[in-house]
Amino acid sequence: MRRRVVVTGLGLVTPVGCGVEAAWQNILAGRSGARKITNFDVSDIACKIAAPVPRKSEFPDRADAFDPDSVMSARDAKRIDDFILYSIAAADQALADANWAPNDLGEEAQYRTGVMLGSGIGGLQTTYEASITLHEKGPRRLSPFVIPAMLINLASGQTSIRHGLKGPNHAVVTACATGAHAIGDAGRLIMHGDADVMVAGGGEAAINRLGIASFVACRAMTTGFNDTPEKASRPYDKDRDGFLMGEGAGAVVLEEYEHAKARGATIYAELCGYGLSGDAFHITSPAPEGEGGYRAMKAALGNSGLKVSDIGYVNAHGTSTPMGDELEIKAVEKLLGDHASNVLMSSTKSATGHLLGAAGAIESIFSILALRDGMAPPTLNLDNPSVETSLDLVPHKAKPFNAKAAMSNSFGFGGTNAAVIFAKVD
Amino acid sequence: MSDVLARVKKMVVEHLDVEEEKVTGNAHFIDDLGADSLDNVELVMAFEEEFDIEIPDDAAEHIQTVGDAVKFISEKVG
């Protein structure tokens, strides 16, 4: 009998707030994190908007604003990239939520707890600034902290050092599927006995000149809503014109079921299905009919032990790009068959923008919370769907549902696909 | 000399996030002030920038205490 894996802790740093309950309530209320970019020059870039993490320094009155000083000293924060800072903050929250502190529990707990935090891009701002320093001042002016600040696996490394986690230390890099792959792969490590507890998820901080301009260059970003940022991310709507970039991190604590039960941990849900696939088609475009995504979902459902009718909510990849959204609808319809008309599917990227490597992690958390509360978050700005579908795309307003399981989809550049399925635990 | 000492002290306090009283002439960056090898590299770079001098790698290896730094810098800026 295979070891079961459950979720016992959650952590979020998002464009709609820092902290799990705050971010979730903002998502349910349909609040957008989009705004105009003001902290760097965008006068010559076609996209002038993004969904950054609201910081305490900008929003002193918001209780859910992110305060870097509450995580570490300004000196330490200067030596890591923001994607690591966000990842550490989310991991801190998740471990506290799970009431799991290996540093206080001794060696055995430390050896049996690991980390799998990924990022799509890693320390882009660090790399960007180091390139300018190298060009303007020469190699002797490069900080010894450039490399440890930008390496993707340093989110896992830093988190392990901070919390004394001596089990598997790994990182995922699969573009916009990173967060979902990290959670799925970490679950497998528990299932196979490599660890009893894993901190898993993803972080991203690519809202800078290089990040925005480069995504504009590959024609993936929204450019037509610079004056109305909150309307820019509009998955499935006929006026959508590309994704809005978000940033932040999501982390979950995954735990072997008996381990969680024995210590009386609060169990949010079971990670019961995980599927992966490759498109083998194109570097940035999804395969025709979304067939790669379909195979990932089918594999996840296949190993979940669930029936298709158990799925009541799908948190879509739905990035608000012209082509991807419709292909995903086709793939989900094919998976669900006649059951599609009973299912709610929404894209929370309509509120958070696209967090790239963190997307799959925060959206897994939103799926788990949707299941917990029996409430599907809305797809904002969905005024006129571009295609007909029997799926309920939850336009504008959150909607109640009652089901056993929820699925979260994530698809990345390079044709990499992941689907994770969470189910209620009786 | 005293000006160099004051400036070095201030930089060490800022870079290593330590209390000023601990930053004496004999204080060893790694053993007494909690620095690691990367902190040392960064500190030497900061000295180069602050005093507009070049500290070659072989010289940097011998700058282990606050006093070492003050002595080297004072000779350079002399």
UniProtKB/TrEMBL annotation, chain A:
Top-level taxonomic group: Bacteria
Record flagged with keyword Lipid biosynthesis: yes
Entry EC number(s): 2.3.1.179
PROSITE patterns xrefs: KS3_1, KS3_2
Entry protein name: 3-oxoacyl-[acyl-carrier-protein] synthase 2
Membrane-spanning ranges: none
Organism in which the protein naturally occurs: Algimonas ampicilliniresistens
Protein family: Belongs to the thiolase-like superfamily. Beta-ketoacyl-ACP synthases family.
Gene3D superfamilies per record: 3.40.47.10
Keyword terms, alphabetized: Acyltransferase, Fatty acid biosynthesis, Fatty acid metabolism, Lipid biosynthesis, Lipid metabolism, Transferase
Top-level EC class: transferase
UniProtKB/TrEMBL annotation, chain B:
Family membership noted in the UniProt record: Belongs to the acyl carrier protein (ACP) family.
Sorted UniProt keywords: Cytoplasm, Fatty acid biosynthesis, Fatty acid metabolism, Lipid biosynthesis, Lipid metabolism, Phosphopantetheine, Phosphoprotein
Organism whose genome encodes this protein: Algimonas ampicilliniresistens
Keyword Phosphoprotein: yes
Spans traversing the lipid bilayer: none
O-(pantetheine 4'-phosphoryl)serine carried by residues: S37
Protein's recorded name: Acyl carrier protein
Name of a matching Pfam family: PP-binding
Pathway(s): Lipid metabolism; fatty acid biosynthesis
Alphabetized InterPro entries for the sequence: ACP, ACP-like_sf, PP-bd_ACP
Coiled-coil portions: none
PTM comment: 4'-phosphopantetheine is transferred from CoA to a specific serine of apo-ACP by acpS. 4'-phosphopantetheine is transferred from CoA to a specific serine of apo-ACP by AcpS. This modification is essential for activity because fatty acids are bound in thioester linkage to the sulfhydryl of the prosthetic group.
Source organism phylogeny: Bacteria, Pseudomonadati, Pseudomonadota, Alphaproteobacteria, Maricaulales
Its biological purpose: Carrier of the growing fatty acid chain in fatty acid biosynthesis.
